[in-house]
Hints:
single chain; 10 helices; mainly alpha; 2 strands; 66% helix; disordered C terminus
Amino acid sequence: xxxWDHYKGAAEAAAAQGDHATAEAMWTHALTFLxxxxxxxxxxxxxxxxxxxxxxxxxxxxxxELTYARAIKLKEQLFGPVSIEVAKTCNLLAAIFYEQAKWxxxxxxxxxxxxxxxxxxxxxxxxxxxxxxxxxxxxxxxEKAMQQSAPAQTANVAHGAASAQAPNGGYAQTxxxxxxxxxxxxxSAGAAAPQVESQPADKKNDVSRMKAEQVxxxxxxxxxxxxxxxxxxxxxxxxxxxxxxxxxxxxxxx
Length: 254
């Protein structure tokens, strides 16, 4: 058994047992050995992927991102920019961004990987269809995030404009925030504040219920709460990886 085989086998065995710290150490030793021997070859790229997975499993996402980015650059040199190996690591990096709800980065890498798979496997391949569905879900999340951020951005702009126009060094802004009356205003002279008619309890409940209902991105059903409990596929962690090409592994995850 070669030194490379020893480190690789130990790393894979540790990862299979959930000992990701040991897997990290073994992949690090493997990379150090390969660097000392001057081998910038597919073994080195494989070790980078393994180290990235060890970091990701420990939720050390920044280190995983840097490691995967390094692997992508090496694989582009070794195999070309549109190889399956490049797509594989793009998928791994996309999964890291997905876990952090970085939808823009997830969508960009997922799109690149999907295009590579389509060009190499064909549009009709089952793995391509699975990845296309996953990418569609990411885009829905991205669209939803953009819709949620738009009102906040509008409110910030309006708030800043009101502050800039407020007299007395911005006192009007403070008064609005704290509920104090402005000097010389009707409220400060004792005028009664306008009364807001309250909604009946049943109407409030209807509004809350309508806001809570969502449409599942996978099955199309309406549901309340964080997840669609009727759909076994809803909001599962995205899997862009090469395991999609292996029916046995796909069955094992069910």
